[in-house]
Amino acid sequence: MFSQSIEFSKSKLDRLFPFHVVLDNKLTIQSLGKSFLKMNIDCVGKPFFDAFIVARPFIEEFTFDKLMSLQNDLIIIKTNGENPINFRGEIEFFEKEKALIFFGSPWFNSIDELTAKNLTIHDFAKHDPLIDLLHVLKSQEITNDEVKELLIRVTKQKRVAEATNRQLSLLQTLLNNSTDAMQMAYIDGRLFYINKEASKRLGISVEEIHNYNVKDFEKVFEEDAAWEEHVQELRDKKQLTVEGINEHQQTGKVFPVEVTVSYIEVGGREYIVASSRDVTNRKAFEEKLRIQEEKYRNIIENMNLGIVEVDNEEIIQYANLSFAELVGVELENLMGIYIGDIMDLGKDKDKIETKRKLRQQGISDNYEIQVRLMSGEEKWWFISGAPNFNDKGELIGSIGIHLDVTEKKVLENELELAKERAEEASKAKEAFLANMSHEIRTPLNAIIGIIRELGRDELSQQQEFYLNHMDTAARHLLSIVNSILDISKIEAGELELDEIDFSFSSVIGNVNSIMQSKAKRKGIDLDFWISPDLFQAHLGDAARIRQILLNLVSNAIKFTEEGGVLLEAKVETTQKNVQHIKLVIADTGIGMNKKYLKDVFSKFSQEEKTTARRYGGTGLGMSITYEIVRLMDGKIHVESEKGKGTKIIVDFELRKGDPRKLIKQSEEIIQNSLEGVRVLLVEDNEMNRFIAIQSLDYFGCVVDEAEDGFAAIEKINNNEYDLILMDIQMPNMDGVETTKIIRNELKIDTPIIAVTANAFKKDINLYLSIGMNDYVTKPFEEKLLYDAINVQINASYIQKEHAALLAGINEQNLYSLEKLEKISRGNQDFVREMVNIFMKNTPNTLDEIHLAFKEEDYMKVSKLAHRLKPSIGNMGIEGLKGAALEIEQYAKGDTIDAAFLKSKIENLDHYLQKVLNKLHEDFHN
Hints:
disordered N terminus; about 900 residues; 7-stranded mixed beta sheet; alpha+beta; 6-stranded antiparallel beta sheet
C-alpha cells in the first residue's frame, strides 16, 4: 500500500494529485488517480506504453531506467488512441516501492471540454494552474471565445515547439545511427558534437568532447598552419573531400579515413562539419589490387603470347617482349611504328582490314592469318582481337593477342593430306567392294536361280544330292559377300537397325529349322530353351537378331564334334514394357585358349591357321556379331576352355511390341497369284533375264523384256505396264538414267523396283531419291521379289481406285432422298430431321474411324463401318454402295494390309465430305 511508503493516504494522494499514474519496475500500471477513472480511462494492469505516449521529451528507449532519468523534467504524456488527451506533469521515483509516479493534470482549452470529459473544476487539485487560469479568466469576465482563442494560440505554439523538438530528436537519432563518423567543430577546431560512430572510432566520450580539438586526432593537421590553410580553403570552396589519418585516443591505433568537410556560417558564427568513413578495407583492397596488377603486368610481359596494342591508325602503342620476339624486332624499336611495316600480310591483308572494321563496331573475334616477317620467315598466327576503349567509352584502337601456331598448322596440313588420302583409299575400297559385290552377285543370281528352278523338277536322289551341295556352296559364297559388305557398312557407319514388331520365339524357331539339319549331318544335338515369360512381341530388328543367332549357333556347330549345342533365351528382368534378355549359346566343342579370348571379336581372326584350314570361315562372323550387339546397346561375353567347350552370353534390352502387328504371312508363294500383272523386265544379262522370267512366270505375270535403257524407253512409249523391274548397271543407258527419263520427261508413275547387285546404303538412297519405289538385291530370294511386286501392285491399284473414285463423283447426284421420302410418306419435317441427324453424326463417326485406325484397333474400325452402312443406304449415296461393307469385312480379317485399309477409309471419308458439303448447301442456304 502506498500508505507504507508515502506519508499520506491514498485519499489524500487523490485530492492532491487526482491525475496520477503509478508504475512498477516492469512499467505496468498499478493504479490511477480518481479523476483518471472518472474520465473512463481505466488501464490498470496494462503496460504504460500501450496506454500512453511520451510526447515530450522525445525518447528512444522505452524502459524503466529511461523514465526514471526524466525526474525533475517537464513531462507531457497523452493517451494512446483516437482523440488523445494531453497531460503535463513530472515523474518521481520511490525507492522503497521501486515504483514511478507521474503527477500531472490534463490540458483543456475551455471549461466546455471539461464537461465533455465528465469533469468539473472540483476534479482538479486546488493548486492546479489550469484551474487558476480558468478562475482568473472568469473573474475578468473574458468570454469563452476569447479563452478559446488564447488557448488555441498557446496550443499552436506548443505544437510548433513539440514538432521542432521531434525534428531535432529525429535528426539526433539519424546522426547517432549513421555509419559515418560525424563531427562538428568551431572555426578554431574545438569539438562541440560527435555522434556514436565518431565516439567509438576516435575513443572520445560524448561528455569529454569539449576537451578535444580536431588537430588531436587528425594527423594531417600536425604541421603548423595546416589547419588555418584548411579552413581558408573551406571558406572558398564550402565543401571538400579529402583523405587523412585518424588516431584512436585511447589505444593510439591509426587508420585511414576519407572525409567530407563542409563550412557553415550561422548567426555570424563559423562552424566546421565533417563526415568521415573508415577506408581501411578499401586501402587494403587497393593495395592488393596494386600487387595483383603488378603481378599480371609481369606475367603479360613474360608470357608466351604476343600482346600488342595499336591506335585507330594501326600505330603500335604497347607491345610485350613475347610479341617483339614473335616478329623479330627489338622491343624499344616497336613503339610508335605502323604495324604493317614489320610484316607482309600477303593474301590476308583484306582479312585484317575486315577485322579492323569489326573493331570499330565494338566486335571481338578470333582468327588465323599467315604472315611473312622482315626476316623472310613465314609464320601462322592465331589472333584474338578486341576493340580498346578509353574511360569515356571512346574507341581508341584495338588489342591483339598472338599465338604462333606454325607447327600446329603444318601438322594440320599433313593431317588434311593424310585424311584426303585415307578418304581416297576408302572410296577406292568402297568402289572395289561395290564392283566385287556386283561381279560376284550377278553370276550368283544366275546360279542360285538355276538351282531354284531345278529344285522345282523331279530329280533323282543323286541329282538332288548334287543340287543340295551346289545350293550350299552358292549360299556360302553369298554369306561371305554379305559379311564383307556388313563389315564395310559398319566401318562407314552405315549399318542401321530397324525397329519393328516381331516374335522373338519365331526368330528362334526359324534359326532352329535352319540349323537343325546342319547339326544332324555332324551327328550332334541342337537344343533350344525359351523362357515362358518372354513377351509375345518385341520391338527391334528381327533380321539382325536372327543374324546374331545364326552366326553364333553356326560357329558352335562348326567347332563341335561330339556332344551338342544349347541355345537358351532367358528373361533376366521385366520392368513395365521392357525386358532384359540373356542369350546363352553353349557347346561342347574344341574351346579356345584364354589368351585368344581378347581377340575373338577382331576381324579375320581365328585362333590358329590350322583351325581355318580344318573348319573354314572368314573370321568375320564374330566381329559382325559384336558390332550388331553394340548397336543394340547390348553386351557380349565369351567364356571358353580349351578342349571343354565355349559359352557365349549376349545381354540386351527390348521394349514390348504389339502382338496385333505380328502379321502371319505364308512362306509359300501361290502359283499364278499375280496372274495378269504386266511386268517390263529391264536387264542386260541374258542368264539373269532367264532366271527372273522363270520366277515371274511362276507368279503368273505377263513379262516383256528390254536389254537396256533405250529399249525400255521405247517399249514404255508403246505399251502400258503395271510394274517395271529395273537393273542398274547396263550398257548404253543404265537404270538410274532410264528411271530419271521415265519420271521427269515421260511423267509416268508406273512402280519401278530396282533389281541390283549394289547393296550399299548410298546406292539404295540414290535409287529411291530419283523415283524408284523399292529395291531387291541380287541374288534375290524368290519370296522377297514376290513380296516387293505384290506391295507395289497393291499400292498402284489403290492409287488408281482413288483416282477413279474422284473422277466418278457427280456433284449433282451425290445423294438421293427418295428412300427417306418414301419412308416418311411425304412428311418433309421428318426428312429434314433425318438429314440433320446424318450431318451431325457422320463427321463424328469418321473421326472415330480414323482414330481407331491410328491406334490399330481394326475390330473397332469394322464396327464403326457397320454403323455407317444404314445411313449411307438411307441417304441414297450410290457412289459408296458397298464401300462401308468392304471396310467392315476387311478390317475384321486375320491378315490386314494397313496401306490398303487406309486407302479405303480415305476414299470413304473424301466422298462423304462431298456429300455433307452438298447437303449443307442444299438445306442451309
